[in-house]
Amino acid sequence: MKRPAKTIGASEPLAARVADHLSRQIRLGQIAPQSRLPTENDLANELGVSRNVVREALSQLRADGLVYVRQGAGAFALAPEDSKVIRLDPLRLGQASDLGELFELRAILETEAAGLAATRIGPDGLSVLSEALARMQGQERTRDDSVAADLEFHREISRATGNAYILMFTAYIAGQIRDTIYLARRAQPIDVVVDETVAEHEAILAALKNADEAQARDAMRRHILHSGLRAGAKLPDYLNGETE
Questions:
Q1: Strand-pair partners of 70
Q2: What whole-number distance in Å separates Cα of residue 113 and Cα of residue 125?
Q3: What residues contact 59, with CB distance under 8 A and at least 6 apart?
Q4: Do 223 and 130 share a domain, yes or no?
Q5: How far apart are CA 59 and CA 53, in angstroms?
Q6: How far apart are CA 135 and CA 145, in angstroms?
Q7: Is there a domain that residue 1 lies in?
Q8: What is the model's pTM?
Q9: Which of 14, 32, 160, 201 could be bridged to 121 by S-S, CB 3.0 to 4.6 A?
Q10: Total of domains in the chain
Q11: Angle between helix 51-63 and 40-47 (nearest 10)
């Protein structure tokens, strides 16, 4: 019988809490660099969660550059200084002005990425985006899987640019993007947040399918700015007027 997951806190979704718990152990050296993490089953029993939750948490840690997988051998910890991912301090997201800086960065980076993707994306990339959007719209729309699908949607657009550095930077801030999605879901009725988010992603996908560079930029920029407002970010003055 699994123990209650009280060792990993109670305020965040389970997968995020497990990821944060393991991340702290890695950063504090409680899990040594290059050491193998416990199996999914062992972690599930230790933390009182399902293996699916553990699997999603490990996927988040891989995206954050703190864990890598050896085929057939399991998951291993990376020393934070060896990570190829820039890890921003999540504590800074507690301030509206700091959130604003994150969304300003996203507006610069992802708006241009969407424009490039409109001219370069192929059928396979559009298929990935459609599948991610379907997961955001489906039965899991208010749960963690829809958040993972949201991140996958943005990552695929960055991949479609064909520019490895754009994809790399999108991966760098994936953890922060995930955190702001949860902030928005706590701040407002979740169904409203999901409906607005899905509609914005539909507009982005439509622009990409039409290979409309200007429309893709506009749809992405509006999505990023409205996402910032939903999360409670204090956007720079020059961006505020673009959310009307």
A1: 74
A2: 14
A3: 148
A4: yes
A5: 10
A6: 7
A7: no
A8: 0.64
A9: 160
A10: 2
A11: 110
